[in-house]
Amino acid sequence: MENVQVKLVKRPIGEPKADDFAIVRGPVPEPQAGQVLVEVHYLSLDPAMRGWMNEGKSYVKPVGLGEVMRALGVGRVIASADPRFTVGDYVSGTLGVQKYAVCDASDLTKVDPNLAPLPAHLHVLGMTGLTAYFGLLDVGRPQPGETVLVSAAAGAVGSLVGQIAKLKGCRVVGIAGGAQKCAYVRDELGFDAVIDYRHEDVARAIKTHCPKGVDIYFDNVGGEILDAALAALALRGRVVLCGAIAVYNATEKPAGPSNYLSLLINRGRMEGFIVFDYRERYPEAIAELATWLRQGKLKHREHIVSGIETFPERLLMLFRGENLGKLVLQVIE
Amino acid sequence: MENVQVKLVKRPIGEPKADDFAIVRGPVPEPQAGQVLVEVHYLSLDPAMRGWMNEGKSYVKPVGLGEVMRALGVGRVIASADPRFTVGDYVSGTLGVQKYAVCDASDLTKVDPNLAPLPAHLHVLGMTGLTAYFGLLDVGRPQPGETVLVSAAAGAVGSLVGQIAKLKGCRVVGIAGGAQKCAYVRDELGFDAVIDYRHEDVARAIKTHCPKGVDIYFDNVGGEILDAALAALALRGRVVLCGAIAVYNATEKPAGPSNYLSLLINRGRMEGFIVFDYRERYPEAIAELATWLRQGKLKHREHIVSGIETFPERLLMLFRGENLGKLVLQVIE
What's the rounded mean pLDDT across residues B9-28? Predict the structure, then answer.
């Protein structure tokens, strides 16, 4: 048994490149007391990973040079030195981009593979589901009848935000890139309307599809789309800052949202959040998400790619909009 | 008795110019049933006036071309056709830039000239006091020990925000332009520290004076200072958007705050407000402000200029930072 690890060896400038990482082969370590050895099955590829590669203050410490690249994942316990886990348990946690991970037992959570296939535990029942849930419900605070606008609507978080907003009685408008994604958002996910940012004037389309203004804009992208949403904000509108995929690879300081004074005129609120802050409330959220899932009320799609060595190039798919649904890297053959 | 009115006749592009206004002389009108004739004593000159001159959707309707320029003021009732007011009463309200104003009685509020000189009723006990009060306390929600950063700290709103924050147990850092204003903020108003934006690197000075980060930034100016404050935001920091004097006269779309993602990293909130929304709570606020005033806890300074015809040029003093304290136009000789 050989471990394969993807380590960060250079801080990327702009888009991460293959040589920012090293593929390192070595022995599989033994778990010490309180630890568990996990065979990694699937890893979550997330835009936030780009931020973790940067030096400097952020909401989590950067991945150190020479360290295994941080990644959330699900896998199976194959050796345990902690009474809370036994061989054969399925677990999720920050496993890292590697085939075998030794983790502190206290950092792992058991997952039920009967509830949903393993990749879904990185999506609806994982961090993206939790991000959509707390960002929309706690930060956005939707009221029935309100208009919710979601960018990256075909993406992992956006697709769930829109569906949860529908469950809460909102009118939901999505923004996505290209005909295929737009059809998915409208026809499969059941959004009320969708805007194709590649082929439409987004600012104008928002005004058309949100005639009473935007009560909640759930922002996954930043850039010009954030600015257009601000311009269309309704009275007491809220902008939920979840991400800014449009600027994560920027090498120059990105432009700020020049329409921010719409927040003043409309008594609006723009607020950021980090899902990790809601850790204590994960169980309640997972329970509600699982209920919706069982009831068939939350559609989800995972885009599964495979091969741990392909990590650097697969990650870029997110920034190029090449994934449809939650991007998951299959590690085990 | 002749009325003198300053009417808006052109929509200014950039800074308002003298010929955007017309000085019109004419008869003094008679109040009809339910109305009151007010002799205007003092008018409040406010940065917000610039916004009222623009066409288009905002939080109040624009001043129409050919209409008397909107202005808050205080004056004396000289004729009344409403039982709620008698000749000799002092009142405040939206009197307009004119010597004599006919107003609906329901739009006026009695003021007590024994509580404070009339100009103070346009400041501490008027709209600027209310703006500072609700913006800081309701939107910013300061906690004892927090660090509050205030721009335009020598200005009408900023000077009160800082003093109220001190009354609430906060550490208060002001930003002002020039040695005289900075001395006023530090030595007379009792701020803990002051930054001279004309002579210091504001971003660096904020980090020096707010070593634990900025819990509340009360923004009166926008522009680069907003961006610097965002960069120094503390965890769960709040940005209260009160105004953006730096950009009100902009003829091109201003740059947005490029550090807005600090709101995401720090789970921050940026929120706008309009004092008029708090109308029902004015009495409680005025009562508390009056108490502080009587106790000598709120210092205030009015910068009084005179001559109604000088309105256009006096207004520009605000944008040039030429006033020290609340700018008030004395109308009556």
Answer: 95
- Interchain contact B256–A (C-beta under 8 A): yes
Q: Does B242 touch chain A (CB under 8 A)?
A: yes
> A242 at the B interface (CB within 8 A)?
yes
ipTM summary value: 0.88
Decide if A277 touches B, using CB distance below 8 A: yes
CB contact under 8 A, A272 and B274: no
Mean pLDDT calculated for residue range B123-134? 96
- What is the average per-residue pLDDT within B318-333? 90
Angle between helices A202-209 and A223-231 (to 10 degrees): 40
**Cβ distance B225 to B197 under 8 Å?**
yes
pLDDT above 70 coverage of chain B, percent: 98
H helical segments located in chain A = 48-52, 127-134, 156-167, 179-183, 202-209, 223-231, 262-265, 282-294, 311-319
* Domains annotated on chain A, with CATH: 2-122+301-330 (3.90.180.10), 127-276 (3.40.50.720)
Residues 290-309 of A with CB under 8 A from B: none
Mean pLDDT within B148-157: 95
- Interface check for A273 against chain B (CB to CB < 8 A): the answer is yes
Q: Which long-range contacts (CB under 8 A, 24 or more apart) does B10-18 make?
A: B10/B65, B11/B53, B11/B54, B11/B55, B11/B65, B12/B50, B12/B53, B13/B251, B14/B249, B14/B250, B14/B251, B15/B249, B15/B316, B15/B319, B16/B50, B16/B53, B16/B312, B16/B315, B16/B316, B17/B312, B18/B312, B18/B313
Nearest CA in chain B to A263: B272
| CA closest to B278 among chain A residues | A267
Identify all chain A residues contacting B222, using CB atoms and an 8 Å cutoff: 261
- Under DSSP, is residue A75 helix (H, G, I), strand (E, B) or coil? strand
- Residue A105 pLDDT: 97
